[in-house]
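Final report, Chapter 2: Outcomes

The project's central promise was a pipeline that accepts a single protein chain and returns its three-dimensional structure in a standardized token representation, suitable for archiving and comparison. That pipeline is now operational. To close this chapter, we reproduce one record exactly as it appears in the project archive, with the input sequence first and the structure output second.
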Amino acid sequence: MQITLNGEKKSLDDGTHLSQLIEQLGIEGKRIAIELNREIIPKSEHASYEIKDGDTIEIVHAIGGG
């Protein structure tokens, strides 16, 4: 299936969940926020949310400052 990830087209296997995408990108355990089709998906739903063909996903990394 084809999705748009941070503005770029990306191919994924059918049935991929958000948690699997995060793992593939090597950002598990990082402070991130995921917006899927303009809606924030809580971390508690990452493992259960199955990505669909045509989804638009934006992943934002939280950066601390002071």
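Archive annotation: The chain is about 10% helix and 35% strand.
This record, like all others produced under the grant, will remain available to the consortium after the project formally closes.
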